[in-house]
Design goal:
60 residues; 3 strands; Ribosomal Protein L30, Chain: A; alpha+beta; 2 helices
């Protein structure tokens, strides 16, 4: 299974609480912070919920 590099590019200020909790669950707390997560349906679902706040790169 591959990995995803997820980078926060927009702030969570003035966002719905559910989106803030999703960002926290992904491990993102600051702008331009990146995390490596496994590429599975659970992580993809979380990324889909906050796709307007993050950039995604697929790693090998």
């Amino acid at each position: 299974m591959g990995k995803l590099k997820i980078t926060q590019v927009r702030s969570t200020i003035k966002r719905v609480e559910k989106q803030k909790r999703t960002m926290r669950a992904l491990g993102l707390r600051r702008l331009h912070q990146s995390v490596i997560q496994p590429d599975n349906p659970q992580v993809r679902g979380m990324v889909f919920q906050v796709k307007h706040l993050v950039e995604i790169e697929e790693l090998q």
